[in-house]
Amino acid sequence: MFSTVRSVLPDVRRNVRAVGQTLPIGSLLMSIDQRTEVRAVVARQIPILNEWGCFDRITPTAAAIEFADVARAPVQWVPGGHSWMLARPQGQSDILLHLATGQEFMANVEKRWRQFTARDHTLRAVNS
């Protein structure tokens, strides 16, 4: 927790008003319990790829483990922080194409897609 506070302090000093307006929203987001919604997604057999930045200071490791339990999806730890995909969007593609968890997720997405379409097409990315 101390390292998170220490990393935020320079931003607080630069823009106190923006931080003051953001804190209530952050507090609200941190208090929302979405376990019921996640269980509903699981019950509908919607594929979940549980990716978590191993350096995430916003949502701790305990939250990742709890989400994995509720979602019945193991954690795919990735090198990065809370918004790791913003800095390295290619990393998401690499996970989907090269890691077993990503490949399994994509196979589940395609299986789910086929349940709702009568097409004999292959599911492809837009830019393929």
What does this structure look like?
- A two-stranded parallel sheet has the order 1-2.
- It has a domain at 33-116.
- With 128 residues, the protein is mostly helical.
- It is built from 7 helices and 2 strands, in the order αααβαβααα.
- It is globular, with a radius of gyration of 18 Å.
Essential attributes:
128 residues; mainly alpha; two-stranded parallel ribbon; 7 helices; 2 strands; globular
Q: Strand share of the residues?
A: 5-15%
Low-confidence stretches: none
Order of helices and strands: HHHEHEHHH
Straight-line N-to-C gap: 42 Å
| Computed structural class | mainly alpha
Oligomer: single chain
